[in-house]
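#struct-help
A.M.: can someone run this one for me? Single chain, 181 residues.
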Amino acid sequence: MKKLLGKYKAINLIIEAPLSGKFSSNGNPMERGNFEYKKKDGETKARYWYMQAALPALVATGNLLRELASWIKWVKFKNKKISCHEIRFFEGFISFKKSGSTSDHKEDVKKLLHAVQAIARDEKQIKIDGKDYKVGDESVNINDGEKVINIFHMFGIDKFSNVIEVPAASEAPLVIVVESK
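D.P.: on it. Structure tokens below:
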């Protein structure tokens, strides 16, 4: 990451971990949108942001983002500190892999990269190694009384909002979803 920041002024960073959390009016965690669950054969399968490996991944990402913020180069402009970098964050969500199969992280990265490029071209599917995948960009839905908190505010990184493109506390970064067809 440090080398990327030294080499490029602007980078897109896709992180395969939750970059936001959603809470009900009484403070309980809840699903962020229909991309976190799937109904198949009358059964609902869920991959909510607060379940299984997602929560430790969120915490590890918070630590990474704090470190990343410390690497930012600053310059003074009109009595203000501004950054020499632009970082755009996306949450990568590889949804509902076949049960029993092991994860291939290189393949997941390849799928997410192709998905971002396809979404930029307004395409809804990609083909990798002869396999079709549905892709989309999802927003976190918010209803009255519900609260969304993004990872930057959860971990106190919002103070770098003039450096990192940090959304308001109640906004979540875009979620890039890749799903097997």
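A.M.: thanks! The two ends are 33 Å apart (CA to CA).
D.P.: also worth noting: Residues 2-180 form one domain.
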